[in-house]
Specification:
166 residues, alpha/beta, 5-stranded parallel beta sheet, amino-acid biosynthesis, P-loop_NTPase, Shikimate/glucono_kinase, ATP-binding, transferase
Length: 166
């Protein structure tokens, strides 16, 4: 792995991108960027508030603008689960580093997302969690340079597996 490159974490809501990202950044001596936090800072509101008031399309637009404005170097970037819905955002992230898909099965995502209504998860009107999962899996697989299965693993193991895969 080249040291100027970023490590971009993609995956379902609840896959552990932010948590794994922080530990990974510490372990590798890299910066850590959480795009959800940047979106909240940019909008001055919580993710769920943006979704509730402005809707999924506005949220995705802010997410895309936020990511396109990033110029990180030597950073671990934890993205929101919906980032793969934006080809422009993904092209920007891919150009600066390696994309790692933290993969979890549907049942595990469901279990981890007990706080679904407050998490800021981009569901289209009338879309179920299952439909969102099925729609995004092919996108994660398409953009991933590496895939790390995270099911039933503790965070340290996941971090270790990501480092091995790099």
């Amino acid at each position: 792995m080249h040291h100027h490159e970023n490590i971009v974490l993609i995956g379902m809501p609840g896959a552990g991108k932010s948590t794994v990202g922080v530990i990974l950044a510490k372990t590798l001596g890299m910066q850590f960027v959480d795009t959800d936090i940047l979106i909240q800072e940019r909008a001055g509101r919580m993710l769920q508030e943006i979704l509730d008031k402005d809707g999924p399309d506005a949220f995705k637009r802010i997410e895309e603008e936020t990511i396109l404005s990033l110029q990180p170097r030597n950073a671990v970037i934890a993205t929101g689960g919906s980032v793969v819905c934006s080809p422009d955002a993904m092209a920007h992230l891919e150009s600066g580093g390696v994309v790692v898909y933290l993969e979890i099965p549907y049942a595990e995502m469901e279990k981890r997302l007990k706080n679904i209504t407050t998490r800021g998860i981009v569901l289209l009107p009338g879309q179920s969690l299952r439909e969102m999962y099925d729609e995004r899996v092919p996108l994660y697989e398409k953009y991933a340079d590496l895939t790390v299965a995270c099911s039933g693993e503790d965070l340290e193991s996941v971090v270790g597996r990501v480092i091995e895969a790099l």
